Amino acid sequence: MTSPTTPAPAPVWLPAWEAADGAARVRALFTATFDAEPAGTFSAPGRVNLIGEHTDYNGGLALPIAIEHRTWAAVSLREDSRVRLVSAQGQGVWECDLDEVAPGTVQGWGAYLAGVAWALRQSGRTVPGFEVAVDSCVPFGAGLSSSAALEASLAIGLDSLLGLGLGGDDEGRVVLAAACVRAENEIAGAATGGMDQAASLRARDGFALALDCLDSSVHHEPFAPEGCELLVIDTRAPHSLNDGQYASRRATCDAAAEALGVPTLRHWLDAAEGGVDGAVAAADAVLTDDVARRRVRHVLTEIDRTRRAHVAMRAGDWGAFGVLMDASHTSLRDDYEVTVPELDVAVEAARAAGALGARMTGGGFGGSSIALVPAGTSAAVADAVVAAYADHGFGAPAFLTSRAAGPAA
Ligand code: GLA
């Protein structure tokens, strides 16, 4: 505990880079590393999920926005099948032969990029080797989809340089997003559900992406909350989606759906009588394990909350939206058990400082919380979070704000 006389440190803010700055950085890194000019520079955003967490791999609904923080990639194609990658955040050049990439053959950050090319090949496209330099202002391991931004920046780059014609419309971007998901699931070994790649490739500037993961359909909902702003709190608590916890949540849901005799938990919700309460009660009657019951209760109620949050968003009812954010966090904390104390304290401090609603965003187990706060109060809410972290003896968090930004380009 700090004494009342110890002032809390000033909040650390993570600004998004200007587009010209991001492009210049990767051009310079490319030239310095590969001694040539890149054929093109591309970028893709991280995301904040406003609500609808751990629903994507259950055929559910999610409501993310792309953020202004992006990953840049300078890319050139090669005539052979070599892949050579350099990152401003890494050390040295990461190399492999694309012909040898297969599940289980490559490790490290380069797997996310080599995996995209591998997946495009798997979908029947001819993809040669390439050189890439990347740099990013999406904080790593912050639950803001730095890996999807990395994948999408190359996917859109290969699409453009190879003339695949996929980036020009949403139908093509669905194909690019699917390649990024395969890269992450099969080559990088993280069993994630696809929401992040959809947000990075299919979002629209100024809109939230209402994503239906049952059929991958999207609806673009204007998102510029009047009288409010979105504050993102990067807890800086360690976060990883391939350490088994995420996969174990997913496995529990898959097993529950099988026990309930449905392809996904979304099917169970939609078929149940008596709405979400009826669906939860009916699942409780079939499932014998208390943990499975709580996991399923989270998924069913979260899909229902996301549906209602979309309605509140459309009506501009930010008070109602905030209440649903709060309920989402409680469910993720108590039923799905994916929060950590740093996420909970950020949410509680933000609410106490006037947020309309606050919740963790992304996979959890570390990462970021978000708060919908009255316009002009982000700095004061950040001060309150910093003070609460100091009181709890946590390391300093970092903060960012974002509007709903545009997709990979
Ligand atoms: C991570 C995964 C997503 C999704 C969220 C939880 O961000 O990458 O697919 O499952 O967790 O909603």
Automatic annotation (TrEMBL):
Question: What's a single GO BP term from this record?
Answer: galactose metabolic process
Segments forming domain Galactokinase N-terminal? 29-76
Q: Which Gene3D superfamilies match?
A: 3.30.230.10, GHMP kinase, C-terminal domain (3.30.70.890)
Residue ranges of domain GHMP kinase C-terminal in the record: 311-390
Q: Which GO terms describe its molecular function?
A: ATP binding; galactokinase activity; metal ion binding
Q: Which organism is it from?
A: Serinibacter arcticus
Q: What is this protein called?
A: Galactokinase
- Glycoprotein found in the keyword field: no
Transmembrane domains' residue ranges: none
Q: What GO cellular component term, any one, is given?
A: cytosol
Look up the EC number in the record and give it: 2.7.1.6
**Keywords in alphabetical order:** ATP-binding, Carbohydrate metabolism, Galactose metabolism, Kinase, Magnesium, Metal-binding, Nucleotide-binding, Transferase
